[in-house]
Structure formats: C-alpha cells, structure tokens
Design brief:
- The chain is mainly α and 136 residues long.
- Helices cover 79% and strands 0% of the residues.
- The N and C termini lie far apart (74 Å).
Length: 136
Amino acid sequence: MSDGDPRNDPSAPVPGSQRANLARLGPALQHSLAGLRAAWSEAAFRQEVMAAAVLVPLAFWLGSTWVETALLAGSVAWVLVAELLNSGIEAAIDRIGPEWHPLSKRAKDLGSAAVLLALLLAGGIWLAALWQRFLH
C-alpha cells in the first residue's frame, strides 16, 4: 500500500528502468512538438521548411545512391536543426533582458554563423550533386 509518496508507489516506474524511460517519451514528444510550433513563428524557419518541402523529395530524384540521397536530404535537415538551435539561443538571450550586451551579441552572432555554415554546406552539397548529374 502506498503512503502517498511516489517513491513508495509499487506501480511507479523504477528510475533507470526501461518502463521509466518509455514513460518519458510522451512528455519529450510534447516538448519537441511545442518547440516546432514555436519555431514556426520565426519567418526564417518557415522559409527553410518550405524549401525543405521541395528539396527533400527532389533529393530522392537527384540522388543516384542512398548515400547521395542521404547527403542531399541530410544537408537540408541540418539547416533546420541549426535554425532551431539559433532560435533557442536568441530566445534565451532575449529572456535575460532587452539591454545590449557584448556577450549577448556574441551569442546571437555565433548562432547566426552556425546557420550560415549549415546553409553553405547544404548549398555546396546540392551544387556538387547538380554538377555531377547534369554537367559532368
């Protein structure tokens, strides 16, 4: 019989057990979906998702092997990941306060640079694939 303390509840999942790990999947999925909904309010993320909606199916047509297809689609996904992380950094910095601070600017600039590098990587991969397919 339980005394009200969740640690003494025999039906509660044992910490570290597979059942406890599975119990975290629902809340983790809810947090992830909330993050995607929050990201949708960002214009840059919406534009990148729309580009991904075109580019990912195109990757299956353009890629000759599963590796090429994975590189093409994965590079697009990497841009979305970088944008999500950049938005998270910006939200955390904005939470601290509206005043300008050099470290806040640095954090935001670094997040933006990560997005730029992801875009350059994706662009390079796509240009190489197009070159290989049509001009080589």
